Model the fold of this input.
Amino acid sequence: MGTHAAALGIAAFAYMFARRQRANAHFTMGTGKFGDLAAFSSAIILGMIALFIAYESLLRLAQPVPIHFREAIPIAMLGLTVNLVSAWLLRDDHDHDHPGDDHDADHDDHAHHRQDHNLRAAYIHVLADAFTSVLAIGGLTAAYYFDWLWIDPLVGIIGAAVILSWAYGLLRSAGAVLLDTLPNSRLPRLIRERVEVGGDKLTDLHLWRVGPGHTAVILSVVSESPQPPAVYKDRLSGIEGLSHVTVEVQACEFHRDL
Done:
């Protein structure tokens, strides 16, 4: 619980810092990635928690210890209630993906582009607590009624494996933003269709996410009849999420001699 509280503190600090520093000229592309950095850190913490749970569970399998069922079960139920309320408060109405999902479809590209990884990290931490509480209640109840003391550490190992997969998914998605990978596989095709009109040719394109729902764009256009950059920017209007659009236009005289 202490490590989860620390993770929630990281999420809160990231929001506060990003908000206070958004006008700081030192951050030339804004502070939108602070949330992704916080989410990446939270994913590492979550993975460490999962490994620790697995280690403790293996120790309990090798060396069983007495379980105080009358105290443990009510505490687990109380923890489940608190975590369910917290998960409801942290829910994101725009994100319906499961914590460990790794989709490749166009629709999921759009969802991941808009996703707030910092909020998702806090949500996964709370959800992980709720999940382990459910497993604990089930394992403790079975151990109490059937005297299966081995089932308590077994559900701990199962829970650790699931939480580790969630942490890995969060690590990948947040890390992809920090490494400036392509945020949406549809965008290059859509931008090319909008820009390449008449004799205009898109020769260079760079896309990267600078915050939830915001993508920076740098593109280069070569044309026999070049237009002002504002014309090409107007062609891109209506594409959701484009920010910091930079257009370079070059004349292409040599095509006439080919």
